[in-house]
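Quick start: read one record
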Amino acid sequence: MPTRPLVFAAVGLVGLLLALPVPAASNPCPSNAFMDVSDSPGAGEGYPRPRLEVECDGDELVVSSNAIPHYEFVQITPNPLVELNRDYRMPLNPKLAEQPSPLPLLGPSGVAINGIPLFGPNEGPVPPPGFGDPIYNAIMDSCMGHTARQYHYHALIETCFDIAREANEPSPILAFGWDGFPVYGPFGCRDEACSEIVEFKSSWERLRAPRIDAWDAYRFVPKEGAEYLDRCNGHTHDDGDYHYHATATWPYIMGCFSGTPSADAGRESDRQLSRRDGGRGRPPGDDPRPTVEQVSRAAAELEIDEAKLAEALRLTDGRVAPMNYVAAARALGIEARDLYEALGVTAQLPPPGARGGPGGRRRGAGPPRQGGRPRGPRPQGPRPRQ
């Protein structure tokens, strides 16, 4: 009679299960971290009303927005403010990855609590030479936003989110990265007991004026002190929770993804692809990371020192930066076309005679022209930048 042994076995199994530790509950849906924009003033007369909806679907946080700011829009670039409806998905229970990964060179890297997308700390390629630090180049409005294909942020200002924080209070969540980790404002607790409020600081240092190719104008230099953040502009608190902090200096929001980003990171349809070649060619930010073999082969073909080529491609010193062959070619003083071809990268390059990007001079074209536009103050006025 097998019934009784089976019953006893089942009872024993239940007892064993009850004795096992109960796994920690998953994070609750953080919908209350987001703003209610329905009663906000909005962008102004003639613009659509801002729209923001937040829900949790299984193990994903879903933010639906039309990328219209909840405050008056002030046009900084020639690009108009347009309604762009998107559903953004990111992990509800983020986990640290084994290695950090680069932000998109162009396109969204997260979303703020008012539904406006975050972009990385570089601007776009238009007008050339481009890819500079948009804050340094003073092409942002007072809330650190501007328009390209859509209105987006390159930095975060607490007061722009209707936050009235007391001096003895930590900053609230201002955004979420595409890897699911929250981005808090710059102020937080020094320790778990919150005995002191400090302003968290970036550990990146500026090497030169970041007018162009901002990722090559800064370097991450680890620093001692609880107020200094890691390469991605985040840290792990004593309770084991990881998060980012917005900072007053580069990279302003995030320097890389500490977790695994969702497929929405740098979404192709959200990128500003206007270029000097009329949009032909591989859009910057789509460049694949070259292998060691590709770099070695390209260095021999281009007659360039291999270490110098790897440095220009941002492959040394543990760097985690978006790939940009145009910027690498510019640093090497060669044409981007030559670099693409030497690396064996498949790309729709612009036709011969058209400059596929400000990569410098072609091999055999003689010395670079001296002089050119003086390096005085940059003219003010709207310019089509990311």
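The chain has two domains: 29-274, 277-343.
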